[in-house]
Design goal:
- By secondary structure, the protein is mainly α.
- It is built from five helices and two strands; from the N terminus they run ααααββα.
- The longest helix has 30 residues.
- The chain is rod-shaped, with a radius of gyration of 28 Å.
- It starts with 8 loop residues before the first helix and ends with a helix.
């Protein structure tokens, strides 16, 4: 079988170089501008989206539980901004079978601050 002239001698080298350069360019453009990600980045993005989705549902429930507790708001307002997560953890142990951790307590404290600001502007 006779090979085409483009695959013989100097031309063959240029074709193979073009294929290699095209493959490298495709991969580089795909990762830089095309939105391609590695498996680890995709796993991190999935975990972040899952956590954000869960927090968007649980934080309003946490705020409702916290504001319903006796003396919680007074203690929350008196506490420093850095210790408000601990105050939330003290009054709300779990929300919808989800135990309170640092990030959840911090998100709940932010929700409580927002709720306090809303009620302050209404009056």
């Amino acid at each position: 079988m006779k090979l085409p002239a483009i695959l013989l001698g100097e031309a063959r080298t240029r074709v193979l170089q073009g294929i290699a350069l095209g493959a490298v360019a495709t991969v580089a453009i795909g990762f830089i501008w095309g939105g391609w990600v590695t498996g680890e980045t995709a796993r991190i993005m999935r975990a972040t989206a899952e956590s954000d989705g869960r927090m968007s549902v649980l934080v309003p429930l946490c705020v409702a539980q916290f504001t319903a507790a006796d003396g919680a708001l007074a203690k929350f307002k008196a506490a420093s901004p850095y210790s408000r997560g601990n105050i939330v953890s003290e009054f709300v142990k779990d929300v919808a079978s989800t135990s309170m951790d640092y990030s959840f307590a911090k998100a709940c404290a932010t929700g409580i601050e927002t709720e306090i600001a809303k009620t302050a502007t209404k009056t």
